[in-house]
Design brief:
By secondary structure, the protein is an alpha/beta fold. It has 15 helices and eleven strands. Bound molecules: glutamine (GLN). Glutamine (GLN) binds next to loops.
């Protein structure tokens, strides 16, 4: 019999529906994989009983002759940034240790409503701040990938590194991610899987622990483009509980998948050719351009002149919003409370926050409060907001000439754990290709394009017009079909 954990979301859905195997067998197989992969540190909480209950419901529905729900029998991993009722949720921070939400996030609830089950809560960079998973308070996730003849642990990307690891190591057929400046796309690229950040407002943020509210978006991470489309359909949709949620129907993205790009124009932004970019990344980009042409698209060079200001603007706006969002962790309402002997309220706030937040989170709060302070607000925050508008305008102009944009996802393959940790600027540079689309709220996806000289995955990014997830998915599918990317990490864990 086939190892059920080699199957993706579509294959599991179809196999359960057609009676090739039971949903329970699928859940048991993935639960066993998860139980045997502690060395990767991808899961903060395991919930095998949740996956089994959803599977049993799917099997019972089938036995009763009911129409199955869209994700019936599909177990997934849940990034631990989504509040899950009755299941510990920490955002990988000590300050939320012991917090068990009495409510369910809209995105996770939507997935359960679609029939999915949960394998567990996935590790991440603390409060989703990071690019390597090294800021988790509960130990970093270790990528399942290794360089040849080298046991040095590699970064799985961040912040959704638990999600990328779970999917690429075959511990889950799909996982949720969140993307504020690249946290779905960069970890997908580092681990050879696909992931899409939809248009800002497609997925509700309600019950998702906030990092930078004007940027945060949930999205799926899965083995291929079709699986991303299926999962995104279940995650997206209007939610009255999120004021920025878009009141729009969810398209049937899976049904409209097409790798035929005839009549489409693919833009190649010249400003994404950054100094010091490895030749392998440039070569992959050229290969991607050739694949787009082969799929019938016309290639046009476009200009996004404010690209070079995107990273500095992001690292002002995201910390500014984070400093405000994270003010709620005060030792009164959630998680950790540090109440020194004889302390007053202010002392408790200070002690709790000093003990509960990690260094990167503190760095962001300090930057955020600084750029929002009376003396510096105009010089930094207002200026960054103006830059954000200019970046959005760059995209609007570019999309007058093309339908989607093609770029590399990240400026390098996965780096070794520890390699960039001491240098925040080097770490932030990872986001150079992903933050512009985040600032403009555009849908963007990473699909695997090939391997570097060390056999590590490299990703290509497609950025689309607002609400054109379909165009993004279709261009992704065209790449996927031509790249023929089948590489998988060799199990060492
Ligand atoms: N790496 C970026 C940061 O640290 C993006 C994180 C994210 O998208 N959540 O802010």
């Amino acid at each position: 019999m086939t190892d059920l954990t080699t199957l993706g979301i579509a294959a599991i859905r179809d196999g359960v529906r057609d009676g090739q195997f039971k949903a329970r067998e699928v859940a048991e197989a993935f639960n066993a994989k998860v139980a045997g992969a502690d060395a990767l540190n991808a899961f903060l909480v395991k919930t095998p009983e949740h996956a089994l209950a959803a599977a049993d419901a799917a099997d019972a529905a089938r036995a009763a002759g009911e129409t199955l729900k869209p994700l019936a029998g599909v177990p997934i991993g849940m990034k631990d940034l989504f509040a899950t009722k009755g299941v510990a949720t920490t955002a990988a921070s000590k300050i939320l240790e012991g917090f068990v939400p009495p409510y369910e996030s809209t995105v996770s609830q939507s997935l359960w409503n679609a029939g999915a089950g949960m394998l567990g809560k996935l590790n991440l960079d603390q409060f989703a701040m990071g690019s390597s998973n090294e800021t988790s308070a509960f130990g970093n996730v270790i990528s399942p990938w290794r360089r040849p003849n080298d046991t040095a642990p590699l970064a799985p990307g961040g912040s959704s590194g638990g999600s990328s690891t779970a999917v690429s190591a075959g511990l889950a057929p799909g996982a949720t991610g969140t993307d504020t400046g690249g946290s779905i796309r960069q970890p997908a690229a580092f681990t050879g899987i696909s992931g899409i950040k939809p248009t800002y407002g497609r997925c509700s943020r309600w019950g998702t622990i906030a990092f930078a509210s004007s940027l945060d978006q949930a999205g799926p991470m899965a083995r291929d483009v079709r699986d991303c489309a299926i999962m995104l359909e279940a995650m997206a949709g209007f939610d009255a509980k999120d004021a920025t949620s878009l009141k729009l129907d969810v398209p049937n993205w899976e049904a409209a998948l097409s790798a035929d790009l005839k009549g489409k124009r693919v833009g190649v932004p010249k400003e994404y050719r950054v100094d010091g970019m490895p030749a392998e990344i440039e070569a992959l980009w050229q290969q991607g351009i050739a694949w787009m042409r082969d799929a019938g698209a016309e290639i046009v060079e476009v200009s996004l002149p404010h690209t070079k200001y995107a990273l500095p603007a992001y690292y002002i706006i995201a910390p500014a919003e984070a400093s405000s969002n994270l003010a709620r962790y005060d030792g009164v309402r959630y998680g950790l409370r540090d109440l020194p002997e004889g302390a007053g309220l202010q002392d408790m706030y200070a002690a709790t926050r000093a003990a509960g937040f990690g260094d990167e989170v503190k760095r962001r709060i300090l930057i955020g409060t600084y750029v929002l302070s009376a003396g510096f607000y105009d010089a930094y925050y207002t200026q960054a907001q103006k830059v954000r508008t200019l970046i959005a305008r760059d995209f609007e102009r570019a999309f007058e000439q093309c339908d989607v944009l093609l770029t590399p996802t990240a400026p390098s393959a996965a780096f070794a754990l520890g390699e960039k940790q001491a240098d925040p600027l080097a770490m932030y540079l990872n986001d150079v290709f992903t933050v512009p689309a985040s600032l403009a709220g555009l849908p963007a996806m990473s699909v695997p394009g090939g391997l570097d000289k060390d056999g590590l995955p490299l990703g290509l990014q497609i950025i689309g017009k607002p609400l054109d997830e379909q165009g993004v998915l279709n261009a992704g599918l065209a790449i996927e079909q031509r790249a023929g990317f089948t590489a998988r990490p060799q199990a060492w864990w």
